[in-house]
Amino acid sequence: MRRVLFLMTIVALALSGPQAAFAGKTSTVDPALMQPPLNPTFAPWECWRAGDSIICEGSDTGTYNGLEVDFLACDGGPVFSAGTYSASARRVGDADGLALTTTFRDSYVEWFSANPDGSGIRLRSTGQRKNVFTYSDPGNPETVSLSTIGVDIRVTGPGLGVLMQDVGHTTWNSDGNLVKSAGSHITEESFAESHAKICEALDLEG
Predict the structure, then answer these.
(1) DSSP-derived secondary structure letter, 32
(2) Coil, helix or strand for 63?
(3) From residue 5, how far is each of 1, 37, 172, 204 by CA, in Å?
(4) DSSP per residue over 159-204, as a string?
(5) Contact status, residue 82 vs residue 64, Cβ threshold 8 Å
(6) Is pLDDT of 135 > 90?
(7) How far apart are CA 27 and CA 46, in angstroms?
(8) Spatial contact of 179 and 192, defined as CB atoms under 8 Å apart
(9) Separation CA 196–CA 174 (nearest Å)
């Protein structure tokens, strides 16, 4: 859920980064034309005309370590993570640059540990999903619906199997109401059970 809220927020951020040159793209477009503005995290964006549409693409990658995972804090102490991520973004707009859809594809691999340096027992967490923002009114962020497809999180441990998992397809309308859900998703009850297993596996029961 935190990743969903993050993606909902960054769609509206302002653009930064230079325009790129495109091989095989016959009609390039200034990314600043796009509305709402493109997310600067994925700059530099490449934009070009394709028929009656404008298509823009960007990407982002990174690594992190020693991060405290607040939603997994155990009675015996905090949980830390280290990992890598990669993400790509694609905006499709109309001929005037008003957004029709924005699609983010992201994947990550990280390790949970009871120690900031990642030593000791480690649990593996992975995710790979697609987030599609659809504008019923082109360019108007207040009319955006969101569909997520894939694995949001899957935590495993040696000899322990799957400790936590959220996988499937969900859709929220522009009012933030869930209108579709399929797959295996984390509930309040299942989170409590999974959280207890993770704390036990990391010897952080308290």
Answers:
(1) G
(2) strand
(3) 6, 18, 12, 28
(4) TTEEEEEEEEEEEE-TTS-EEEEEEE---HHHHHHHHHHHHHHTT-
(5) yes
(6) yes
(7) 11
(8) no
(9) 34
Report the run of H or E that residue 149 belongs to, with start and end: strand 144-157
pLDDT (tens digit per residue) in 69-101: 999 999 999 999 999 999 999 999 999 999 999
Instruction: Give tens-digit pLDDT for 99-130.
Output: 999 999 999 999 999 999 999 999 999 999 99
The backbone region for 81, taken as left when phi is positive above 0, alpha when psi lies in -120 to 50, beta otherwise, is: beta
Nearest to 104 by CA among 83, 127, 125: 127
Quick check: 120 and 107 in contact, CB under 8 A?
no
CA-to-CA distance for 175 and 110, rounded, in angstroms?
A: 32
Give the residues across from 62 on adjacent strands.
Answer: 85
Burial 81-109 (b: 16+ CB within 10 A, else e): bbbeeebbbbbebeeebbbbebbbbbebe
Tokens of 53: 């549409």
- What burial letters (b/e) apply to 17-39, b meaning 16+ CB within 10 Å? eeeeeeeeeeeebebebbebbbb
* Degrees, nearest 5: CA angle 48-42-70: 155
Give the separation between CA 136 and CA 139, rounded to whole angstroms: 9
